[in-house]
Structure formats: structure tokens, C-alpha cells
Structures
1.
Amino acid sequence: MSTNLFDVKGKVALVTGSTHGLGMAMARGLGLAGATIIVNGNSSQAKIDAAIADYQKEGIKAVGYKFNVVDEEQVKEAVAKIEAEVGPIDILINNAGIIKRTPLLEMEVADFREVIDIDLVSPFIVSKHVVKNMVQRKQGKVINICSMMSELGRNSVGAYAAAKGGLKMLTQNMATEWAKHNIQVNGIGPGYFATSQTEPIRVEGHPFNDFIINRTPAAKWGDPNDLAGAAIFLSSKASDFVNGHVVYVDGGILATIGKPSNEN
Ligand code: GCO
């Protein structure tokens, strides 16, 4: 029996939205630590195949399943297929998400609903169908990918903040209901990371880029690989008595009120 508290070797980890970005970075971290990665995407099989090839180039065992996380029938079918073809899902990372940057007064209700559906309702849907099997096995790990917007508001991301704020509370409620089954539910709250999702607000000279560098005590955008440690911690024995907690990986943003732009 491994005495390594952070051992995830041989575990099966389903990471939704893991064909790119933060999902891929967390899945890669778990894969390099020995977990088998279930790669999920909904855009195209080609994208999933390309991601699988990237994982396999690094010696990571990865299997791809295309399904839409907001469609309960697809989720139910996919979970059954994964558990039959690969094995029981030990770790679920609810990462799939979108953002729409529109001021609330200009936002269409349909757009608001789409963000809530994907960023808040889908973690409920996927968890419901994965956790019912974890309960039978009396063990499991669920990690919901929250955000700075689980704690703070920002102009133009109201729907996203409502979803991510709700996801923090859903994490606490899942922990409340499932801890007795030896299932630990926690969150990871990324700060501002260099991904395709933040590309539009990160370009050189964009006012938001300068703002984030100033607002982040570490004075830089995060590298997605900085999230692997938190993912491994919350997926391993090391977190067996950690429940309902959001681990913020944010370079210190939430620790500070910020500073004037002319101060070092
Ligand atoms: C934005 C950013 C954020 C980050 C992340 C911060 O527009 O403010 O895209 O949403 O992606 O969620 O934690």
C-alpha cells in the first residue's frame, strides 16, 4: 500500500472540458502523476483526438469521450460507457465552462441562462451521475472549478459570477451531503491564467492586462501548470478530511485590496 499521501497512480479521473486550457493542465498533472485521464469535450471528435495525442506524447494514459455536459441523457450514457470500458471513476473534475463578457443591462436572457446552464447546472448533472456510483464504492473525489468570481464581482461578467458564486455554494452542499459516504467535494479557484479564455483581455497593452499585473501580488498571469498541485492534493489521500473548501490558486489576488498602479 502506498505511503505516498499524494499518490493517484491507477486512479481514473474524468475531467470535463479537458481538450485545452485549465482542464487540460489539471488533467495533465494528474496523468503525469499516474492517473488514467478520461478526456471530455463537446466541440469535435477531432479536438478530442488531438488532445489524446498530446497526452499520450507524454506517456499519459488517456481515453476520450465526446458528450455535452448539460445534456443529462448524454451524461448518463457516457458515465455508464466510461465505467464499463475504462473502470470506476475515482476522481471527477467539473471544469467545463464558458464565459460571456456583456454588461448585465445589455445581456440577453438566453445568454445569461446558457452561462448558468454550463457553468453551474452541468456540474450538478455530471456529479449526480458519477457520485451515485461513488456512494456504492464508499469513496470518491469531486473537484468543482470555481473562480475569482466565486468571491468577487467584475464589470461585464455578471452571469459568470452568478454561476461561479453558486458553484462555490453547490460545492459546500455536495460536501455536506456526500462526506458521510467518504466522498470529498472541494473546489479549485483559479486566479487569472494565460489561456484562450483570457486571451482577449490579456493582449499586450490591453488595460485589463496592466490591471491584472498590478492587482496580482505575484505580478504575473498564472501558468496553467500551476494548478496541477492543487488538483493532485484534492484528488489524493492527502485531502481525505478536507470537505467543502475552495483552494484558491491566484498569485495572492484574494489576499489583498490591491495597490495604486504607481506603487511597487
Ligand atoms: C474575466 C476572466 C475570469 C478568469 C477567471 C478568474 O473575464 O474576468 O476571464 O473569469 O477567467 O475566472 O478566476
Note: Residues 98 and 114 are 9 Å apart (CA to CA).
2.
Amino acid sequence: MNKIIYLDNASTTKVDEEVMKTYERVSLSYFGNASSIHRLGIEANDLLEKARAQILSLLKLERSHEVIFTSGATEANNLALKGYMHQYKNRGNHLIVSSIEHPSLIEAAKSLEKEGFEVTYLPVDNHGVININVLKQSIKKETILVSIMSVNNETGSIQPIEEIASLLKEYSKIMFHTDAVQAIGKIEKSYDDIDMVTLTSHKIHGLKGVGALIKRKNITFDPILSGGGQENGLRSGTNDVANIVSFSKALRLSLAKLPSTIKHVKELYNRLMDYFKSNPEMYILNSFSDNPFILNVSLKEKKAAVVVEGLSKKGIMISSISACHSKSEAYSYVVYEMSKDEKRSRNTLRISLDYHNTMEEIEEFIHELDSLVRGLRQ
Ligand code: PLP
């Protein structure tokens, strides 16, 4: 395969070789069903429970929270919203989310609305951040859940989740959920004041197909899947033990590397920012020096998709809008909510960095992008 410069790490990450070895070892040697009562089943279940305990301990949540393993963050977000709202509908029918959540959360909220629940979509400012006073004003007697993502997947904006958690402590009936997919392994945050947290393995060099909803022990759900009663009856289906064990390893490795990752990625980010600032063809949508992992720029004149294709031909992978839905949508609702500028929201490029990326790759990317944009200009 020709050389690839991969700058699309917010879409997914390359699997870590150590994580892959764990996956292979567990798949081959511990293939028993974790629900079986024979020796192979018991051994698989032991590994499953160790992974569960390790994830909680890495996030320092072992006393207060527990883990429900899912197929990824989409399922975890659906469970947090639908499972929670259905379970506690006798307490109230109002839910608050931000207007720039990932589609897996926005669409779950919309589907609850169709069932008769009331949803408030909080606006964001031009940095993509909600206003805590607006959140406070949106709370009603019927509000039972607030869900605000920790870091946005398209623009990297960071929400004040600690402040939100502290506000919501005043309302004993309201639980707080955060989608922390783009924060874990990137931004140092503490989750002990948060009632439910969504994670996924493939954004932290684990494999695709496994994630988790971490929830306070006293919270329960109306399960989305009916079946054999795994995960305390909250998520039926045979546990993918190899993938779960690899997930806990990916989390351990990414947290251990975090300080050096941040230092390295910041240098790459600074170089990119210098280039974008000096380029009159582009608007920088975000410039969060506290989140150097995602950069989002809009092209003033040219089509982002043409640039993405041109770069791809050179072996450089970046994103326009978000890989999860860029084929189906012609504009970014996230950029629109932040900029209120339709033209900009149709022309966004997302560059998302990772510890694997080198300064040489960034220089090559800048060189190719520059010649593409100059070529398009002529
Ligand atoms: N939430 C956020 C913020 C994401 O970036 C993504 C993936 O792009 C998801 C949820 C969905 O994750 P998964 O692919 O594990 O379903």
C-alpha cells in the first residue's frame, strides 16, 4: 500500500498493535460464552469482569458507577436517552440536549419527541459552547434528563461539563449524561459528578463494535434489547469478551500516554494554525488551544469535498463534515449552529490529529493542501 497520511482520527483510529494482540489472544484462548457455567465460560467471565473493573478504576469511578457494555457509542447514547426516559417517564417527560450533539444522540432525542416526550435543543455560541444560564432557564418541573457532549466531534469545542454537573446537583430529579467519545484519551476531565457517560473503543485505538454506557449504580433503564439478560438485564446479547478486554487495554494505554500525546499534538496543531491563519482562502472555525486534536476550517470559495478527494488521491485522509454522515448530508448542522452561515457550513474541512502523526506529515499535508487550493483558484 502507498504511504498514507491519516489525519481523520476523530472518525476512527488505527488499532494499536498491543490491543490487537490482546484481541487475538482472548479470541483464541478464551472463546467460551461468558454466561456459560463450565470452565471456559467461567474463565471468559473472569476476564470480562476484570475489564469492567479496570475501566471503572481508570476513570476513578469504581465506587459510584458501573459499566454496561454495548456495541459502541451509538447504542450507548440511545440507551442513555431512550432507556432512561422510558424507565422514568412517571417522573417527568422533558429532556434537554445541545443542538450540536452527535447524530446518534440528536436522532434518539427526535425519536423520543415523536413518542410524545418534550425535548429542548440548547443553542451554542460561535465557539460551540452552551450557555449555562440558558440551560438553567430551560429546566422545568418535568425535566428529568440533560445530555450534553463533552467534546464535539466536528469542531472540537469543549463543553463546561463540570459546571453543568454542579448546576444539576441542585435538582435531585435531573440526571446528567455526557457523550465523552471525543474527550476520553484526549482531554483530562473527571466524570465522578456525572451520572452517565458514553464511551467507544475505536476512537482510542481499540476495535470497532464495542463501547460502554457508564452509569451511577442506582440508575436503571428500560432495556432496548430483550434477550438473555446479560449486563444485569440492561443489554442482552452474548458479551464480546475479546473486544471488551481489548477496549480496557486501549483505554489504559491511551490514558497512560495522555500527557505526552497532548504535548506532541499541540506542536502539530500550532504549525497547522500558523498556516491557516496566514491563508486568506480559509476561515478557522475553531481555535481551541485546550483541544489541539480537532481543527475545523471552512473554505471561502471552494468545495470542501473536492479538496478532500484531491488530498485522498495524494494519500492524505481528512474529513469534510463528519465521516459518519458526510455522504447523506450536504451541510454541517454543527458548523451552522455555531456560525449561522450556510455557505461556511457547506464547506468545512476537519483535520483530526493523533500521537501517530508526525511534523513531516503535517508539512506534506500543508504543501498538498496549498497547491490544491491554489490550483482551484486559477
Ligand atoms: N458520539 C460521538 C461524539 C462520535 O464522534 C461518534 C462517532 O463518530 C459516536 C458518538 C458514535 O460512535 P460509534 O461509532 O461507536 O457508534
Note: The pocket of pyridoxal-5'-phosphate is lined by residues 72-74, 102, 104, 149, 153, 179, 181-182, 200, 211, 324 (CB under 6 Å).
3.
Amino acid sequence: MCGIVGYIGHREAYPIILKGLKRLEYRGYDSAGIALYDGSDIKLSKTKGKVADLEARLEKEITTNGTLGIGHTRWATHGVPNDINSHPHYSNSGNLVIIHNGIIENYESLKKELIKRGYTFKSDTDTEVLVNLIEDVMKKENTKLGKAVQIALNQVVGAYAIAVFDKNKPNEIVVARLGSPLAIGIGDDEFFIASDASPFLEYTKNAIYLEDEEMAIVRRDKEVKIRKIKDDSPVAPYMQELQLNLEQIEKGGYDHFMLKEIYEQPRAILDTFRGRLRTNEAIIKMSGVEDNMKKFLNADRIIVVACGTSWHAGLVSEYIFEDLARIPVEVEYASEFRYRNPVITEKDLVIAISQSGETADTLAAIKLAKSKGAFVFGVCNVVGSSIARETDAGAYTHAGPEIGVASTKAFTTQITVLTLIALRLARAKGTISSSDYRHHLIELELIPSKVEKVLKSDDYVKTIANIYKDVKNFLYLGRGYNFPVALEGALKLKEISYIHAEGYPAAEMKHGPIALIDENMPIVVIATKKGHYDKVVSNIQEIKSRKGKIIGIVTEGDQQVKELADHVIEVPETLESLSPLVTTIPLQLLSYHIAVMLNKNVDQPRNLAKSVTVE
Ligand code: F6R
């Protein structure tokens, strides 16, 4: 989390950095700041609040000329969000200025040492410790900035992407990464630095992504020099051509990124199976799976590691893999898995799911699984992300950039990829008949148009949102494949509207949550025809007799639930195993509309950040 951006070249740095910060604001948005070199000194402005707050005050505070600068949008880890803890941070001499994304875990011991050596600190941040450590090395070792950064980072435990410059050498920015992403855009005699490529897309399509434990000296009018942090050895830069375009990262007429991304799902799902699902030939082709078929087929079990919404997609996949391919599956929160000494062997196949490909806990879980000899397969959205690179093989979702903090299209495209894998394995293992297999392929191909149809219920979902927007609690119930959808619906509502919501397996309701039900409690029940329909109808009756308000997600033409429920939202019929791809959509829309009606910041909900690169 935290977005970092920098520029060095021949243009005014300020507008480039400001626009870049707006694009990166999804990464963190509790404070923001910019430092510019104006030709003789550093001009710095920072504030608690959003990038818009910074923009409002910055031009009154400082002159904004200069062709070198760095900027930061923060998601607080050490120190509360306030003006002082905002980045950039100066070193004690005022010569160096730094921005940082990540956590320096041993900052307290480093700080004590520096205090003993006469350094003082204004903020509570680990970042201010790092910039002074670099300054201290420069003085002690009489070195230039680049070498001092390398020596200092060897004393640091933690994760970082940093950009730092020295006002006495205003022709270079030094950057480094360990565990947090950092891209360098290569223009004509100009360079851009950012947490992802979005800030510099309109200037260049050429980028170098730093690898972990690498640093780079980015010099005006010169090339980028990359070195290993550990031993200072040189690394040959690897330049990539970016496939992203500007349209993909803009709102395109929608009020919010979240709504745009909900509406993009038919296209995103189609893009995800395009070229892989060949219904006419009755084949599924995914090179990551084909190339490693033996690993998949010989695996004793699949362990899925993920966090948040990606974990919910993992839970859906448990049903799919077990049901279709008869492979035992365990779905683990990456944050728990990494610390509980799990039993993993070479016969395990681990699937790591992550939209961003940068989630620290998922990355750590992957490393642990690999160290025990397991084969790790990644399902990521962001191409070239840390998780995509750390895994042994993988399959991308082709959702396109997801910018709204609440994950939507990532979820449905993850389920799409996992379904394709399960079907391919089921075919290879002979656990599915050829007619059933074909039926699945045909139905999967129809999903984008079915999602399109569900989106047509948007206005109706909005009327339901208006009825329930002021309640304090929501319950979401589902069974089988739709139990994880209930969890996901509840998560969406919590994170963007701040209404307390719980997801439960419908039959578990009577073991506790039923006590919550009264006439004020809305309960969203996923009750599609395939699956455990009759059982869910019984659950609905139990709710009804306790006066709960029922919002049913039902199959088109359903009568039984319609008679019992207060509202029903219809979704087209599909196979039970594919139903999460359609039942999820109304739940996303419901939470979106409630949050908008409550005036919440839908794309940037409080306390959250899009990619959680810290523990
Ligand atoms: C919820 C949400 C988070 C993420 C979680 C994992 O809407 O966005 O729960 O799903 O932080 O992120 P990734 O998938 O990037 O690893």
C-alpha cells in the first residue's frame, strides 16, 4: 500500500506527479505529499487527507516549478495519519528527501542508534528513520547517495519500495525495492518512477520493473543503472512493453470505478476464457496447466492460499475441484497458513490467488509452500506482479486493471480461471463424462450474456437498496457453491457502506445467527433452483416465521421463493457450479447502491487499500 511516484527529465515535474498520485490513490489515501527540486532547493508540501486536499493547499504553499520531484499517497502503518507523518520525509540536514511504501520492521532499534548519534525525529514513522540512516551512512562512509542507500538497506529488515534524492545532486533519483512493487518508465531523456505503470502511461510504454532486492540509480538524460542491494553487483535492465492503455484506467463515464468494473464483468469473463475455452473442439487449453499436467494429476491435494475476496474465490474453487475433478482441496487464509507450521509435502499442489499479485501474506505463504517442496500455481490479475513471478507456473485472469478498492471483476474472473482448470483436470482424470463436460463448456460460454442480463436488474436492485440503506445489520445466506457468495456479498457491503454484515451457510443459521432475526433484519438469501433449493426454501420459511425481511436471489421464473420473500432478484438459470458467476452480481450492485446512497466514498473506503503489501 501507499503509492509512490517520481519524475526526472525535461518537463515540469509537478503536474506529472500530481496526476500520477491521483491514479495511485487507490493504494492508500489517508495523506499525500510532494517534494520538488526547484533548481536551488527542495520545496515540500504534505497533508493529511486525499490528493485533492494536497492539491488545494500545495500551490498556495510552494512554487511548483522544477523538473525533478517525488510524491506519495499514504496508507498509514507507523504513526497515525497526520501532516507530520505524511511523506516525503527530510533527513536531519535537509539534504535528502524520501518516499516509502512498506514497513521497516527494525526501525525502533535503528532509531535508538541514530538518536544516540545525535539525530532527531519529527514524525513517528519508520521512513524518517530510513532517510536518516542513509544520511548517516553518507557521512560516516563519505559516500554518494547510491552507495549509501545500498549500505543502509542492508541493515534494514522489512519491506520497501523507496525513492530518494539529494538536493546537492539533483540529477538523480535512487530507488529500491523489496516486497513492494516499483516500476521505472523509460521516456526520451526522462524517467518516471511509480508503484505501478498507471502514472506514466501517456508518456511511455516502456518500463523496467525492479525485482526484489534490486536498486536503481535513475539519472537525468542517462540510462538506468540497476544493482543488487545485497552485494552491489550490476544487473542488466530488462525493458518491457506495457500492454495497458489509458482508457482501461479511467472511469469511462461511470460515477465510480466500482460500478464500471461491475459492468465490465461480461467482457472480463469473456476475455478470461477467450482462447482457452474452445467449445467447438470440446477442449480447454491453458499452457500453465498443460505444461504441468503431471504435477496436477499426481497431487494428493490442492491447497488454496489467498486473502479477502480472493479467498472467497478459493472457497468456490473447493466445491468445483472436489465436485468435478475429485481432488481434495483445503482453502487457507494466507495470513494464518504462513504462521501455523502447516503440513505441506511435495505431493501438495498450492494454488495462490491474488488480484494484485502483491499481497504480502499470500506472497509469504507461497514462499513457505515452495520451501517445503510444493509446486505453486498462481492465479493473478496483474501481469508481472510479484506473485506471478514467484509462483512456479500460473494462469492470469484477464479482468483488466481493477481500481475500485472493493474487488468485483477480479472475483468473477478468478472463479472463471479456477473453473477452467477444474474442468480440464476433470477431463484428464476421467471424473466427468464427456456429455457433462461439453455441457459445462457450453454453459460457461453463455455466462457473459447471462451476467449482462443480471446487470439489467440494476434499477430494481437500487430500489431495494433505498429501502434498506439505513439498517444497521445485514445477513447473507447461501449453501454449497453459493455459501462463498454469501460471504462475498457481506464483505462487499461491510467494506464500502460500513454496515455490519455477516455471511453464513444457510443451514448454520439455526445454530446461532437466527437469534439476530427480527422485523428489522434484512437477509439476503441465495436460493437458485439448482443446488439445495428445497433446503434453502425451508431456511427462508424459518426466517419468515421470525419476521425477517427476505431479499431472495432466485432463478428466473421462480414462484415458491417469490411468494415467501419480500423482494426477489432474478438471475438466469445456469449450472449449479457456475451459479456464483451470476448470483454475485446483484450483491455487488446492492452494496454499491447502498454505499452511494449513504454518501460513502465507494472507490476509496475508509481504512482500506487496494493492495495490501504489508502484514
Ligand atoms: C475486498 C478486497 C480484498 C482483497 C484482498 C486480497 O473487496 O479487495 O479483500 O481481495 O486484500 O487482495 P489480492 O487479491 O490483491 O491478493
Note: The longest strand covers residues 96-104.
